[in-house]
Design a protein that fits this description.
The chain has about 260 residues and is mostly beta strands. It contains two helices and 20 strands. The two termini are about 25 Å apart.
C-alpha cells in the first residue's frame, strides 16, 4: 500500500446531517407558530437547503435538514397536553425564481386547536441545489472538500483546506469534467505542485459517480506524496419519502 493510499484509506466521507446543520448556525431564523407549536427555519439560498427546528409546548423536537433529496417533513408530535400534526415542505425552484418553505400544520392544547398554512419563508433561488457534501483527509492538516450540486449531480465545487482554511478552489461540471490548477499552491508549510487535477464522473440511475483527484503535495509532517484517488463517491440523487417526525425525534441522524 502506498503512503497516499494509507492517508486516504480509500474512504472519502459524506458529511453527517449534524455536520451540515452546523453550517447554518450563524444564519438568522424565520419563525412561524400554531399555538404551542413553534417552527424555526434557517435558509441557505446558495445551497438550496433549510434547517427546520421544531418545538412543542416548550420542548425541542429536533433539527431537520431539508433539501432536494429530502424536501418534506410529516409531523406527529405530542408533549404533555399538546399535539401537532401536518407537513412542512421545501419547494425548490430554479434561479431566478423564488423557492419557499411551506407548512400546513395544526396543533392542539387545552382543548383548543391552532392552525398555520402558508409560507414560513421565501427567497430567490441562487445556483444549483446541493445534493452532497464530502470530505477526504489527505493528512493531519490538509483536507479535500467537495460539494456536489444539481438534480443530476453534474457539478462539483472542490476545495483544498489547509488547517481549516481554503487555499485553492476549482469547479467541474458534466460539460467541463476536467479542471487543472495551473500554479503551485503554497500556504505555510503546505506545497501542492502545479497541475493538481480533478475529474468528474457523473452518476447515473444505474451506477455511482466520483470526483477523482490527482496531485503531489507535502507538508511539515508529510513528505512529498502522490494522490490519485476518489475524494467523493457520488450517488444518483433520489427524492426520498417524507421524513416522519414523532415525539421521540431529536437531532438529525448522520447519513453515511
Amino acid at each position: 500500500m502506498t503512503q497516499a493510499e494509507k492517508l486516504l484509506n480509500g474512504r472519502p466521507r459524506a458529511l453527517s446531517t449534524d455536520e451540515v446543520i452546523e453550517f447554518f448556525n450563524a444564519l438568522a431564523p424565520y419563525q412561524a407558530t400554531a399555538g404551542p407549536l413553534t417552527i424555526e427555519a434557517k435558509v441557505a439560498p446558495g445551497m438550496g437547503q433549510v434547517v427546520v427546528k421544531l418545538a412543542l409546548a416548550g420542548r425541542e423536537m429536533g433539527k431537520h435538514l431539508l433539501g432536494y433529496t429530502e424536501p418534506e417533513l410529516i409531523l406527529n408530535l405530542a408533549n404533555d397536553e399538546a399535539t401537532a400534526t401536518g407537513k412542512i415542505k421545501l419547494e425548490l425552484k430554479a434561479a431566478p425564481h423564488f423557492s419557499s418553505l411551506e407548512a400546513d400544520v395544526s396543533a392542539t392544547q387545552s382543548g383548543q386547536t391552532f392552525c398555520f398554512k402558508g409560507d414560513i419563508a421565501s427567497w430567490q433561488a441562487k445556483g444549483l441545489p446541493v445534493v452532497g457534501h464530502y470530505v477526504t483527509q489527505l493528512d493531519a492538516t490538509l483536507t479535500a472538500n467537495t460539494t456536489v450540486r444539481g438534480v443530476s449531480a453534474n457539478t462539483a465545487n472542490f476545495e483544498f483546506l489547509f488547517q481549516g482554511s481554503a487555499v485553492a478552489a476549482m469547479t467541474t461540471t458534466q460539460l467541463a469534467p476536467v479542471q487543472v490548477y495551473p500554479d503551485e499552491i503554497s500556504a505555510g508549510n503546505l506545497h501542492i505542485a502545479k497541475g493538481a487535477k480533478i475529474t468528474l464522473a457523473v452518476p447515473t440511475e444505474i451506477g455511482p459517480g466520483m470526483l477523482f483527484l490527482q496531485c503531489f503535495f507535502k507538508t511539515a509532517t508529510t513528505p512529498e506524496t502522490q494522490v490519485s484517488a476518489s475524494v467523493a463517491n457520488i450517488a444518483w440523487p433520489q427524492v426520498a419519502a417524507p421524513q416522519r417526525v414523532s415525539d421521540e425525534a431529536r437531532e438529525g441522524d448522520p447519513h453515511d
